[in-house]
Amino acid sequence: MRAAFLGTSEFAAVVLRRLAAGPHRPVIVVAPPDRPRGRGRRPGSPPVAEAARELGIELRQTADINAPEARAALAAAAVDIAAVCAFGQIVGEPLLSSLEALNVHPSLLPRWRGAAPIERAIMAGDAVTGVCVIRLTAELDAGPVASRCEEPIAGDDDYGALAGRLAAAGGELLEAALGDRATGRLQLEAQAAEGVTYAARIEPAERRIDPRAGADAEARRIRALTPHIGAFALLADGSRLGLRSPAVVAGGPAPGVFEVDDGGLVLGCAPGAIRLGEVQPEGGRWMACADYLRGHGLPAPTVAVDD
Fold first, then answer.
1. Are residues 10 and 88 in contact, defined by beta-carbon separation less than 8 angstroms?
2. What is the mean pLDDT of the chain?
3. Mean pLDDT of 105-124
4. Distance between CA atoms of 192 and 211, rounded to whole angstroms?
5. Residue 34: helix, strand or coil by DSSP?
6. d(C-alpha 127, C-alpha 108), whole Å
7. What is the pTM of this model?
8. Residue 215 three-state SS
9. CA angle, corner 5, sides to 88 and 197, nearest 5?
10. Each residue's pLDDT tens digit, 124-177
11. Range list of β-strands (E), 8-75
12. 3-state SS, residue 33
């Protein structure tokens, strides 16, 4: 059985490497085009494209998987099935009907369909999430489920830690599902009609914390956006301060006010407070709070979100 792999992110690259090491090594990989990255805005390849080059797998980069030239590349590769993971493009007709596709989605569907399931699960305070392998259909993340597994969310999990475990589990599930498909043993179960929630893409405004929302909620926000997107506080002096490694503590200063605690920083919330492990001054690098205090002093209070 000849498989194509469609993906973009580092999460998808982990899954691709798992497949490439097994019996269902893809014969072609499709990823988006290179785009400007980082502070220098130099062109950079998506992680899946980089992985395909490292693995020596034929690579096709396209901004539209449904374009005639992209479909022609898949036809020329004579693929029987597509494995899709964190691709970011909608597979439409006629490709959807002509090529069977199995999709790895990091949530326990039907909860958290959509673009940001890991972030939304952490932000919502879910105790457990997981991974599903589904057959791709026209409706977003609504296809029947081939397999699933659960993954607890620890109290200190950030996106990076949780996504790493889910990607490893997703690679295992997808490899097994492709094996079942190759031997005619793949079984699919329709998703439940109840419990559908949508994980909307993280908007820029959601990166800014609001201490008035409470320490628990804002600590989850910080963890959900670490390290890939990043949460920040807007300070009264007009600068941004990036925040990482939060721990909820009792007491603390007034909401939006920072204080020093054993060489670290505590941000007051309502209720509770957040003790921070790392911060990033605007235009600077991430550093331990003690290092920040030595070079910058106590940060200005935060600006209220609606100010």
1. no
2. 96
3. 98
4. 37
5. coil
6. 12
7. 0.95
8. helix
9. 40
10. 999 999 999 999 999 999 999 999 999 999 999 999 999 999 999 999 999 999
11. 28-31, 35-37, 42-44, 58-61
12. coil
